[in-house]
Design brief:
With about 140 residues, the chain is an alpha+beta fold. About 25% of the residues lie in helices and about 25% in strands. The longest helix is centred in the middle third of the chain and has 10 residues. It is globular, with a radius of gyration of 13 Å.
Length: about 140
C-alpha cells in the first residue's frame, strides 16, 4: 500500500532500543500538551521524546519516510502504542506518536502539542517503530 507516493512493505521488524523507553517517551510528550514551542518541529519533538539530544540525520519527515521506506521499515494498519505515525496533512508529511486506539500525540498542524484521533488528521498514513538510526 502507500502513503502518498511511498510503497509500503509489510514485514516484521523488532522493536528498537531507544535511550528513553516507550512509556517514558509518551509521558514526556503528554507533559508538553498545550505547548506551542514545538510548532513545525514534529520530527525533532519525537526524536527528543525518545531520548535523542542530537539531530536525527533526516532533514524532515518526508526524508525520514523515504529512508524508512527504502529500508522496508514502514507498516500499514492500526499503529501500536509508541509507534511513530507518518501522515499526510496538507501538502506535507508529518509525524506523531501513537497512544493506541487510533489516537496520536505530538505538535499537530494547528500548533500546540495535542492528542488527536488520527482519522481526524489524515486517512493517508503509515507507521514505524520509533527508529532514529542516526540519533545519539
Amino acid at each position: 500500500m502507500a502513503c502518498g507516493e511511498v510503497v509500503v512493505e509489510g514485514r516484521s521488524v523488532p522493536r528498537v532500543a531507544n535511550p528513553r523507553d516507550t512509556e517514558s517517551a509518551l509521558n514526556w510528550q503528554l507533559e508538553r500538551i498545550g505547548s506551542a514551542a514545538w510548532l513545525d518541529w514534529p520530527l525533532k519533538f519525537q526524536r527528543m521524546a525518545f531520548g535523542y539530544a542530537n539531530d536525527s540525520g533526516w532533514h524532515d519527515a518526508a526524508d525520514a519516510v523515504s529512508w524508512l521506506d527504502h529500508h522496508k521499515l514502514l507498516r500499514e494498519g492500526q499503529a501500536p502504542r509508541g509507534a511513530l505515525v507518518w501522515y499526510h496533512a496538507g501538502d506535507r508529511i508529518r509525524v506523531a506518536c501513537s497512544l493506541g486506539s487510533g489516537q496520536v500525540v505530538g505538535p499537530l498542524l494547528t500548533g500546540p502539542v495535542e492528542v488527536a484521533l488520527l482519522i481526524s488528521l489524515s486517512t493517508d498514513y503509515v507507521w514505524s517503530d520509533p527508529h532514529f538510526p542516526f540519533g545519539h
